[in-house]
UniProtKB/TrEMBL annotation:
<protein>
    <submittedName>
        <fullName>IGF like family member 2</fullName>
    </submittedName>
</protein>
<keyword id="KW-0964">Secreted</keyword>
<dbReference type="GO" id="GO:0005615">
    <property type="term" value="C:extracellular space"/>
</dbReference>
<keyword id="KW-0732">Signal</keyword>
<dbReference type="GO" id="GO:0005102">
    <property type="term" value="F:signaling receptor binding"/>
</dbReference>
<dbReference type="Pfam" id="PF14653">
    <property type="entry name" value="IGFL"/>
</dbReference>
<feature type="signal peptide">
    <location>
        <begin position="1"/>
        <end position="29"/>
    </location>
</feature>
<comment type="similarity">
    <text>Belongs to the IGFL family.</text>
</comment>
<dbReference type="InterPro" id="IPR032744">
    <property type="entry name" value="IGFL"/>
</dbReference>
Length: 119
């Protein structure tokens, strides 16, 4: 029988030996045991505070322009062109979690043509 004092040590050694992946955590956070660190290009980011958008790390609250009259949250939404020509219309659509979201298959969040948002 193993003394109770050594049990936490055995568990820690077991986790370190059985963890086949790199253990990396963003500065100021607790390490994530046996999980791949999320990356954006060659940089690590914290998915609880940030997202990866066009190989750039953004804050979850950051917004971008969608057409001339809308803003959208790139971490949660897509800016989708609806029509081209003299009047370029845009639609903001929701990203579906766990899926590689695309404009043609995502649900509409807001119509930039009917609502005019000015930052």
């Amino acid at each position: 029988m193993v003394p109770r004092i050594f049990a936490p040590t055995y568990v820690s050694v077991f986790l370190l030996l059985c963890c086949p992946r790199e253990v990396i955590a963003p500065a100021g956070s607790q390490p994530w045991l046996c999980q791949l660190a999320p990356r954006c290009g060659d940089k690590i980011y914290n998915p609880l505070e940030q997202c990866c958008y066009d190989d750039a790390i953004l804050s979850l609250s950051q917004t971008h322009q969608c057409g001339p009259h809308c803003t959208f949250w790139p971490c949660f939404e897509l800016c989708c062109p609806e029509s081209f020509g003299l009047t370029n219309n845009f639609v903001v659509k929701l990203k579906v979690q766990g899926v590689n979201s695309q404009c043609h298959s995502s649900p509409i969040s807001s119509d930039c043509h009917s609502k005019r948002y000015f930052p």
